[in-house]
Design a protein that fits this description.
By secondary structure, the chain is mainly α. The protein has a single domain, classed as Lysozyme (Orthogonal Bundle), CATH 1.10.530. The protein is about 45% helix and about 0% strand. It contains 10 helices and 2 strands. The protein has a two-stranded antiparallel sheet. A hairpin with a 5-residue loop joins strand 1 and strand 2. Helix 7 packs parallel to helix 9. It is elongated, with a radius of gyration of 21 Å.
Length: about 240
Amino acid sequence: MNVRAAGTAAGEQPRAGKAVAKTADFKGALARAQAPFAPPPSRTQPAALAARPVGSGSLAAVPGLASFRGRIAAQESAGAGWSARNPASGALGRYQMLPVALKDIGWQDASGAWTGRAAALGIRSEADFLSSPAAQEAAMGQFLQRTEKQLAANGALGAAGTVVTATDGQPLPITEAGLVAAAHRRGAGAVARWLEHRTRTPDAPVPEATRAAFASVERRLRDFAGLSVAAGPAGASPSA
């Protein structure tokens, strides 16, 4: 979050007054930094999103699910399939699940060992995971559900249905599918930071350290804007 320092009050102030003012400014800035992202008022809420609560229903009943996952797979594993493995990052399978993602959903422990939750689906090794489409679909479903909850918790999901000006100056529709897809690639925190920058400080330059992340978030939002998807119940295994 960009925190702007309060302007200097006109006239000379006693030292005690300055100290109090600085303390108040600091506390105010700290409170703003800790507050979750507050999305702008919805302008063009799509009918499909307005009619369906977040994470509701079964995956089979959600229009566009196969297309959503198919597009994720195309961008992540470039069609390499279920056995795809990235030796540099350790990402696994059709959806290139990173070790941190498998830990987040409880399939691996802190040391990288497969847990009882994974074993319940027959996964006790990396080879098991790479040879099981059903397990990969279940893991993806649980990860998307977790991602959706994170987006709801940090306030970013509330921006679905609005239009935000992207860093290139073009209007960018914000949809639930786009937000979830962007968070799948960059994390829910990066999505919230991008939204905050574009809605609260749109004229501020993009920090060098976040340019790549912001560009990635915008690509995902555009690529998935026409799709509809929900994370759905954990463990579901639709066709993709």
